[in-house]
Amino acid sequence: KMNIIVVKDSLAGGRKASELFYSAYASGARVFGLATGSTPVTTYQYLVKSKIDFSNCISINLDEYVGLKPTNEQSYRYYMEKNLFEFKPFKQSYLPQGDAADPAKEVERYDRVIADNPIDLQLLGIGRNGHIGFNEPGSSFDLTTHKVALTPSTIEANARFFEDEKDVPKYAYSMGIGSIMKSKSIILEAFGEDKANAIYDMVEGDVTEQCPASILQKHPNVTVIVDEAAATRLK
Ligand code: F6R
């Protein structure tokens, strides 16, 4: 069963997650799967302030926009540099390379990175529709790393960050659900009332590809950290 921890707010959640990172590290974890977005920001803030030393660790991120250079301020590489890596460098930090010349080769390379460095602890956020990584409802539970077409609503939501509409990414690289399920342990964080339905479906709903995160019910070591607002529909 999923281990569910309800906290007051995203600060308390980030603190809790950073403590779980620390205890995983203390018991030997050296490969950390990381996420971007608004949810893990407080976790990274606490990790930056903590004594944890990642210089002998490896990080592997979930996803990246296709077409963006690592220096692009909208890239997930840039987000990771600014939120974590500049303060807590890892021995090696992997993300899919947005500007890779050959997408098929890039997807293969990333699967090899994950196979060569089995993830000890994977940090996840969740979308309002239950997505994890860029695995939207309907994606197969068996997928490994793949190139995903962004939905029109995601493209539209991202447009405000770009000067020119044609620069808005139309695709992303994402670990698949199959890759995510291979990590030894998982922490999923969700904060705010707009995540309450997704959390309910993930924890208490059927395991179905219509709610990608519901597959986590079948993973042996998942900790869900939710604030009170995201937990409102849980029994
Ligand atoms: C980010 C990622 C996404 C987000 C999700 C929630 O690397 O893979 O699945 O975790 O979209 O985003 P936020 O945290 O911005 O609500």
From TrEMBL:
Keywords per UniProt: Carbohydrate metabolism, Hydrolase, Isomerase
Could you tell me which InterPro entries the record lists for this protein?
Glc/Gal-6P_isomerase, Glucosamine6P_isomerase, Glucosamine6P_isomerase_CS, NagB/RpiA_transferase-like
Q: Which GO terms describe its molecular function?
A: glucosamine-6-phosphate deaminase activity; identical protein binding; isomerase activity
GO biological process: what's one of them? carbohydrate metabolic process
Span of domain Glucosamine/galactosamine-6-phosphate isomerase: 31-219
Q: Which residues form the active site?
A: D63, N129, H131, E136
Keyword Hydrolase included in the entry's annotation: yes
Is DNA-binding tagged as a keyword? no
The pathway where this protein functions is: Amino-sugar metabolism; N-acetylneuraminate degradation; D-fructose 6-phosphate from N-acetylneuraminate: step 5/5
For this record, an example GO cellular component is: cytoplasm
SUPFAM superfamilies given for it?
A: NagB/RpiA/CoA transferase-like
Task: Give me the reactions it catalyses.
Answer: alpha-D-glucosamine 6-phosphate + H2O = beta-D-fructose 6-phosphate + NH4(+)
What does the protein in this record do? Catalyzes the reversible isomerization-deamination of glucosamine 6-phosphate (GlcN6P) to form fructose 6-phosphate (Fru6P) and ammonium ion.
For this protein, the record's HAMAP family field holds:
GlcN6P_deamin (MF_01241)
Q: Which family does it belong to?
A: Belongs to the glucosamine/galactosamine-6-phosphate isomerase family. NagB subfamily.
Q: Mind telling me what this protein is named?
A: Glucosamine-6-phosphate deaminase
**In which organism is this protein found?**
Liquorilactobacillus hordei DSM 19519
Q: Which gene encodes it?
A: nagB
